[in-house]
Amino acid sequence: YPSEFLMQKMTEDNQIPVHIHVSASLQYVAGLKGNALIEFFHNNIAEVENEELRHLMWSSVLFYKTPDAEVMACVLLSTKAIYFLLDDSLIRAHEHQSDFWYQENSDCENSSFHLSCCSVLKLNDLQSVNVGLFDQYFRITGHSADHIVTCLTRDSYNTHAFIQQLMAVLSLLARTPSPEPVDKDFYSEFGNKNTGKMENYELIHSSRVKFIYPNEEEIGDLAFLVAEKMDGLTNLQSLNILLYVLAFQVNHVEGSAQNSSLLQPKTLILTSSDLFLFDEDYISYPLPEFAKEPPKKDKYQLADGRRIRDLDRVLMGYQTYPQALTFVFDDVQNQDLMQNLTLDHFGE
């Protein structure tokens, strides 16, 4: 340790997505290569001497205590813990929540020294990992509200890579295995015998950490919710969700110094007849065990919905990933232009 392969892989993964702007401190980290990156980890982040850095990923993250603040983080997985290296602007924005973000040094605000804060979740405290629909995000849950983090990778490849590495690292932990059930058959493991209803697919790792994957019913529930938003115009049997993707809605800010654009996280859902944008709560569901009451917001809140038949054209940018798409809809809203066009219009 570190092997040549690991150093090369870390260097390749150490890239901030082009559409995200981060502070100078995180840009410094993104500029590190190979051995310099490993040394930076051991000198500044690692908590014990013999831990090894195994995986690095840049991702937007959400914390349970601050569910409305999506921030960019460098996620570092070692053989002992998961570290979230965060932008210093986040700490300033949440200074009033001093129990959660505690800024020790406010003297360095005006100097050229850039501060980052690091949130740590020890692997021994890890209880479960919930994988979101179509592997667009995953939520890591520890034993308290301080230890619940959602990584919004918006990319199934990054989700898979991280979970694979996490499982490998958890296999190194020496934990006593959970007792085997007496009758270990498919139905007793995954089903509820009284209702015959499938629960979410759970994989219990040898380290006793649960990996929970969504089942088909989540898509069914989502289809039902979408049908409700369509004012019952469609019949649920014919409603198919063709695409579910975590995206950003681009709002151009006019009159700013550089014509900048504001990215608002949205869940885009495409059905055979409509295009929807939802505000989704990625952090509160399913409810953690210690939650005393349900979250203030529903999991899905409709932000916008348009009929595909009103879609006039789709404009595509020429830049590489992430691709920008502009959907141009007709101005005539909720009117079927053909409905009154009868033969009478062409009489004398």
UniProtKB/TrEMBL annotation:
- Which Pfam family, giving just one, matches this sequence? PH_NISCH_C
What keywords appear on the UniProt entry? Cytoplasm
Instruction: Quote the cellular component terms of the Gene Ontology held in the record.
Output: endosome membrane
Q: Which InterPro entries match?
A: PH_domain-containing_M2, PH_NISCH_C, PH_PLEKHM2
Q: Which residues form the PLEKHM2 PH domain?
A: 114-178
Q: Where in the cell is it found?
A: Cytoplasm
Q: What is the first-listed, main subcellular location in coarse terms? A: cytoplasm
Q: Where is the Nischarin C-terminal PH domain?
A: 241-347
Give an example GO molecular function.
kinesin binding
The portions of this protein that span the membrane are none
What is the official name of this protein in its record?
Nischarin
Q: What is the lineage of its organism?
A: Eukaryota, Metazoa, Chordata, Craniata, Vertebrata
